[in-house]
Amino acid sequence: MSTDEQFLHRALALASQGIGLASPNPYVGALIVDAQGNIAGAGIYTYAGVKHAEVLALEAAGSKARGGTLYINLEPHAHQGRTPPCTDALIAAGIRRVVAAMPDPNPKVSGLGFEKLRAAGVQVDVGKLEDPARRLNENFARYIRHRVPLVTLKSAMTLDGKIAPPAALGSAAETHAASGFTGHWITGEAARAHAHELRHQHDAILAGIGTVLADNPLLTDRSGRPRRRPLLRVILDSQLRLPLDSQLIRSAKSSAANSSDDRDVVVFTTAAEATKKAELESNGVRVETLPLAALDGRLDLAVVLRRLAELEITSVMIEGGSTVNGAALRASVVDKVFLYYAPEILGDPKAVPFAPDRALQQIKVNVKHMHRFGEDFAVEGYLRDPYGE
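and the corresponding structure tokens:
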């Protein structure tokens, strides 16, 4: 591994410390190495901290920055935003060389930072470790390029693709099938702990009302890692059936005094009955009415995602059951999948599948990573390129 790659790896590690703290802006880590090859300063961007990673690194390096090299995972910005252009600060500090993993994914500003640095006589090298750098900021790329969040469909299943044993007979059968209710965990403790790491990497988690009625989940980030804002819990509830005694409602009560924009439970519905809406809102829940999808009479998931983007949500993880999984795939809103598999076979033809067969065509998944969690494993793959058009 070259010296440049070693320092870029450290810049990427710094950038990853911004997960949960930088959204809706990208994760950026900066490392300044002085003319003698020693680390002189480092910086991590956090949204609340305002100052960009390269400015923080310059402040830490002081006079040692002159003649030094900046290692950074993302192109320094050359435009006026919440802060002045970082390129101006780098030039003024006498940085001799900039080594960046990738350009800014925002097409409106991509390349402008490099252009300004080169015009000032700074040597710029781009492209080393681009793949991990792109993966780190894929949420931001999807959001800034298309004004929708990156959508990850997460599920846990057996080797034969079942997320739950046969649903209970009777009136609750449809609810259990929709939610993927199991009565026991399919995957082991290590995989379930990792699922909370995945939650931490997202701005929002989305589930259907069937999951809430069957499982009564909290849907919170229990990774123990810091967040700038709580994980937004998004419930699709077309008939506004969310129980007032659910864990979601009880855990939302603490935010009841906050403004609607600050609440961490949002319910999207198509029929906001005035009394029930008022009850939910008085318990700290945000209720929004959205139009139906034209094809199946359910909420239009594309509209839901555009609305979440307006709330500065850059990433959503779907943790629904079979019905929501199928609806999301049919609506072509899923960007990637993270599928956990347990080494068991349910076998029963009545067991609940990952997604219903009806109207669901074959979908190609570009598998990029395989993970092991004890006896379980997971497949991480893409249905489309988050950086694509």
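(Above: one complete record from the training split.) The longest helix spans residues 3-16.
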